[in-house]
Fold each of these.
Amino acid sequence: MKRLFYLLFAGMLTGILLFGSCEKVVYPPPEIPDTVSYSLDIQPIWDNKCVSCHNGGLDPDLRPENSYASLMDGEYINVDEPGESKLMKKLDSSPHDARATKAEKQLILVWIEEGAKNN
Ligand code: HEC
């Protein structure tokens, strides 16, 4: 009887350990590509969510022909500390926090982490 109890206990423990370790596997969100492209992934966010206001009269100028230079020249991007970028801080504070989705902000952050290339 005692042996059966130990067997059950050992089985349960193994189950918990296995299940527990399975739960810790973290998959990257599917919408983040391996290499984020500025022109294909980031500019469309500006086009859809920002250019209605940031169209030249308001810094940063996020129109396709000017956005990259405007972000770099205005020092909105901090490649050494991506989360500290002026751009990311803006997108985390009201009312700008509602102007891009969580997934879009994540994509922008990964783009900066990858070196904020004009790719
Ligand atoms: C409804 C109009 C509007 C939209 C849409 C908008 N913005 Fe803005 N944004 C402003 C205004 C007005 C300011 C200046 C006042 C302020 O700092 O909040 C500003 C300021 C900023 C600044 C700080 C500029 C500085 O020099 O301090 C950044 C960065 C910025 N916006 C990025 C964005 C991005 C990225 C988007 C799209 C996801 C966006 N904005 C969408 C109106 C808008």
Amino acid sequence: MLPATISAIVPDIRLCRVDIEALVRDWFGDLGSENLRRPARDFSTLAGIRDWLAPGELETVQGFKALKRQVEWLAGRLAVKALVSACLDASLSPVDITVAHEPRGAPFLPLFPGRCLSITHSGRWAAAAVSLDSALAIGIDIERLSVPGTQGFLDLVFSTREQAALDRSDPLALARGWTLKEAYLKYIRRGFHRSLHQVELIEDKLLDGGRPAPVQWTVARTGPDYLLAVVFGPRPSKAVERS
Ligand SMILES: CC(C)(COP(=O)(O)OP(=O)(O)OC[C@H]1O[C@@H](n2cnc3c(N)ncnc32)[C@H](O)[C@@H]1OP(=O)(O)O)[C@@H](O)C(=O)NCCC(=O)NCCS
């Protein structure tokens, strides 16, 4: 049993969250109390790993240098596999459910190219979301609530006019803005290939290049210490993806 929870964000979007702490405890009992900030370990000897990962995926997980990255990546893939089995095709074996990436890093499901997929991992949580409606695009992001309120962080994430309206002593407001903006960058499939300053949260409206973005969103706590943002809307035009 995976420590995974599947929920409906809106009728056409399903989200699967994996609790990395529980996963480590269940799958890697010997690691339970260890700090994940350690060198990579050999995952190929884990009981049952080949029931979940395709040979190429096992190779990827073996290639990471740090245990934390291995576990986060694995948890993200398990979230995708659980989600696809539960929501798209229960007859598929987890090994056959794989993820590929567009040139700029956006993930997609080769078996379901019409469905939009988004993945995030941060600290305790990994999550994947899939749209059941092929016209709907999504982007998700999880961040810790304890974002640094330093000027360097603010300058990196927020435009001058956003900073003017932000209460920088409010960690929830900072984390909310940061998480939403990252989820939006994933929604347009650009990631950090688009500047965070091009995307602004002004009076609770997401603007892209100064214009309202045609999206809706939710932001909710995941456990006491994390925020999960889901941005969704029509598939962005190729022009937005390229801009
Ligand atoms: C996507 C991005 C905004 C999110 O970063 P993050 O908060 O550190 O990481 P998260 O765990 O929330 O998200 C990682 C997932 O985002 C997804 N992702 C990566 N690039 C993406 C893109 N262009 N659009 C949508 N999703 C993307 C991937 O699925 C990735 O998970 P995976 O590697 O396990 O498949 C950022 O990492 C990025 O833009 N990466 C690609 C470009 C890059 O590497 N730039 C380097 C410095 S400029």
